[in-house]
Amino acid sequence: MVECNGKPVAKLSDSPGKTICHDKAFVRALRKAFDLPHIKKAS
Fold first, then answer.
1. 20 in a structural domain
2. pLDDT computed for residue 27 by the predictor
3. Each residue's pLDDT tens digit, 3-41
């Protein structure tokens, strides 16, 4: 699922590469709201 009722949704994870969301601005807002660190993607 990538959206619900026209709004973005996200799956957050502390494992690199497992965070899933098509809206990067929404992920940034979630990180800020929940004080989450930026996790680099696995190479």
1. yes
2. 85
3. 899 999 988 777 767 878 888 899 889 889 989 887 776
Residue 21 lies in a domain: yes
Note whether residue 41 is domain-resident. Answer: no
Q: How many domains does the chain have?
A: 1
Full DSSP string of 1-43: --EETTEE--B--SSTT--B-S-HHHHHHHHHHTTPPP-PPP-
40 and 16 Cβ atoms separated by less than 8 Å: yes
24 inside domain: yes
Terminal Cα distance for the chain, rounded:
25
